[in-house]
Amino acid sequence: MTKRFDAKKFFIVVIILILFIMGIIYLQDVTDLLQLLIRVFRPFLIGIGMAFLLNIPTQFFENLLAKWLGKSVIWMRMIGIFISLLLSVFGVYLLMFLVIPDLRDTLTQFISVLPDRIYRFASWINQTLADHPKFVQAIMSINISPEQIQSYVTGLLNNAFNVATVTLQSLFDVTVNLFGLIFDVVVAFVFALALLLTKESVIRQFKKFVYALFPLRWANFLVSLGHTTNNTFKNFASGEFFEAIILGLLTYFGMLIFGFPYAVTVSVVTGASAFIPFYGAFLGGGLGAILIGVQNFWGGFWFLVLIVVIQQIEGNLIYPYVVGKGVGLPTTWTLVTITVFGALFGVLGMILSVPITSIVYQLLSENVNFTLEQKGVEDIQHDTTWVKVKDTNFKTSLK
User: Fold this and answer.
1) In 3-state terms, what secondary structure has residue 4?
2) CA–CA separation, 205 vs 212, rounded Å?
3) Distances (CA, A) of 181 to 185, 195, 284
4) Angle at 191 between CA 190 and CA 196, to 5 degrees
5) Which of 1, 145, 187, 303 is surrounded by the most beta carbons within 10 Å?
6) What is the Cα–Cα distance from 262 to 284, expressed in whole angstroms?
7) What is the DSSP letter of 387?
8) Within a 10 A sphere around the Cβ of 278, how many other Cβ atoms?
9) Does residue 203 sit in helix, strand or coil?
10) CB of 268 within 8 A of CB of 275?
11) Cβ contacts of residue 117 below 8 Å, gap of 6+?
């Protein structure tokens, strides 16, 4: 029987193909339009992010109050929002009055000892050259004219002038953008509070829109995808938060036990860098090693050893249980996706790579398992060359 021609589907495919081709032809215009839309809706995008992060502790406190009192009412959510904001303000207070002063003292000490370390390094180079005259003669045999040296110095001065000019312009741009950012944050904060207070209504309206616009099969898929996305990002955010606290505390107490300087500053930086999975601890540890190494070279070396040990504990014990189980992504895929997303999208890509890949991984796993179940295939192991099909003695080769 000949399959009936579906004009509606053909029309939709043609429209999508035309839009795709037009997007490629006018790629720059499309990019400019997207950037304009992002600028216009930036406060609301920030507000959605703030609402999502605040919803995690708000929901915890709201459920806790509802469990104690036996029912949930709107004032419980308001109390949960208030406690969440209070904790956020307390965190900012600790950052402003505990970490920043210590960071200032750390930088002051770093700057004060830096000239002496540079002088010692230069003296070591001079002594090394004095002990190896043949090496000096080899360098002096290189034919470099005074004009070349003058040209090189002039180029350095011009580059320094250009860098200074660009820096001043950048400072002006930062100052202008700062006022715009303050306005965006205020609007985002108000929008986030509105979302938190009316989230059930917003979710219900969104679902009604999805079920009205799409066929039932696709609507169910989109709603399920939204549920999976919400749970994955929520588990990732809460897991990364607790992991950062644990890593910071491990670093702090380890530095106190072994007598390393700058314990507060380095532990806070190391904990904050933990939001970048796997690589974050090494980035924070590298900064700490530089600060400590300027004061004491071997102290910086042994601090790196301490960070490696803490990283092994964090990577093998803390991360798989605190974050890994929450996002459901194997360690191998986590390492691959962090590296790829980091190369493509920078630090933000490294942070968001794990939850995004976890969602794709879950969808693919469900699809693969469903397909295998439809085929009747079961019990596939890493060394399997033949598989059994359910309810039959027939065997299928995978080779």
Assistant:
1) coil
2) 11
3) 6, 20, 27
4) 100
5) 303
6) 13
7) E
8) 18
9) helix
10) no
11) 294
Q: Hey, what are 221's tokens?
A: 């898929």
Residue 252: partners with Cβ closer than 8 Å, 6 or more residues away? 263, 264, 267
Q: Could you tell me which residues come within 8 angstroms of residue 207 by beta carbon, excluding any fewer than 6 positions away?
A: 223
Interacting residues of 245 by C-beta distance below 8 A, sequence separation 6+: 271
How many Å from the N-terminal Cα to the C-terminal Cα in the chain? Answer: 36
